[in-house]
Amino acid sequence: MKDPEKVKEMQKQIDELMKDPQKKKAVEEYQKMTEQAVEKLRDDPELKDFFEDVQKNGISAMKKYENDERILEKFSRATGGVQAWMNQMSPGMPGMPPRPATPQYKPGDEVIIRGLAKAPELNGKKAMVVPPTAEEKKTLEGPGGPGR
């Protein structure tokens, strides 16, 4: 960010991105999601000093926390991390890889849980895929049943 040419090029890419209504909407939705996550974090007692510092000293206060793993982890969990940004933006942002296909799992597959915002304590845990119950199948099918 210290190189003025790189900043200028990045701004040019952002300006181009924002000309496309679909891409602009994706940026705005991600921004809204991030703002909501930050609002929830304001209630976290471990982040009280961080928010007070930023409110008192402005955005430049964030420089002090850029390597604080505890704070970075909380923000990453709350916002869904880099993967959420990539999912929201790709393939709309220049240089972003296309969104990967949703993986298909079968009962018995071992997986690592990631991206849970409402139960972040489970992220990183190993789990095994199990077949859905009859009730879960109905929920997955949605209203009107399969294929409707």
Automatic annotation (TrEMBL):
Residues 123-148 are annotated as: Disordered. This is Multidrug resistance-like ATP-binding protein MdlB. The lineage of its organism: Eukaryota, Sar, Alveolata, Dinophyceae, Suessiales.
